Amino acid sequence: IACPCALGLATPVSLVTGIGRGAQAGVLVKNAGALERLAQATTLLIDKTGTLTEGKPRVVGVQPVTGFDEPELLALAAAAESASEHPLARAIVAAAKERGLTLATAENFLAEPGIGVSAQVKGRRVQVGRVIPNASSSPSASPERRFEDKAPYPQSATLVGVTIDGRFAGTIALADPVKITTPGAITNLHRLGLRVIMVTGDREATARAVARELGLDGVHAGVTPARKQQLVREHRTAGERVAFAGDGINDAPALAAADVGIAMGTGTDVAMHSAGLVLVKGDLRGIVKAVHLSRAVRRNIRQNLFLAFIYNGLGIPIAAGALYPAFGWLLNPMLAGVAMSLSSIGVVTNALRLRNVRL
Length: 359
Ligand code: ADP
Ligand code: MG
Hints:
With about 350 residues, the protein is α/β, with parallel strands linked by helices. It contains 13 helices and 13 strands.
């Protein structure tokens, strides 16, 4: 009767069953602790490109400054981007190929996550990356990284700037639609009591337009990967329990620093390695499912611990003779044996209910 067998089973059995249920629903749990912590998350910091949006941007406009023409600008930018796996880079390369442009080979390729790329193309130094609207006020902008933000595109378009040999040569605008499942998922996350705040490397105007459309609770735009991580820390220091959802190399530090890192299965390997949970489809409804699952698992663990404790808590005193003076009751060893099996069976049966939990 003193054997705390059910107590040892209570937590792992719930977790294992919950992890199995998650896998069926496309939520891969890499770290059981992350699943437990998600139940108490108060704030979801979320990346924009590839997480809220499709991550499959398309070039919608090329705006060279005088002295350059469109095909030349696009061909040079695409050549520099050809070695990058960033979604914006792929879109620029695809646009150049669609227009039948031939891409020169790029040398000395260098990628700065969250900022852009640079490479040597036909002997010219080509840089493609973030536009910085007010260069002088942005401490993250080195002088050769100061692109201008001046293109007549919709607010929600992402702009990248191109410089050639240090001279601003033009902008390329890309449209990246919000995933069709995103608005519904955000509404559900709000219902679950989470604050949802966008953290993106994209420019302010684009970030605000998307955040307004989705009704998010806050926006941090123009942030570097290091700053993303720092923001996670700041929110945690402020007493919030932070989940971070992202897909890119630039999100990896933040994913690792959050209480719960959630990576999109459609994203980069680095992001998936840094996260505790991976959403197979990269669809935000997966976050809603994960939150439901984590709360169900937490409740189940509590029920199991209660079941296990009550058996030892009542059984041991009775076996020790606590009720003997008053009622003359002792515990028959056969009954104690049955009780021990029943408590383990009870705990396992309760945990197995998680297989059918609705997410
Ligand atoms: P997000 O945080 O929205 O996922 P990133 O941090 O990956 O975005 O990128 C932030 C910004 O840096 C982009 O909006 C883009 O302007 C610029 N950028 C990053 N990588 C590249 C690249 N390979 N080519 C062009 N621009 C890039
Ligand atoms: Mg991203």
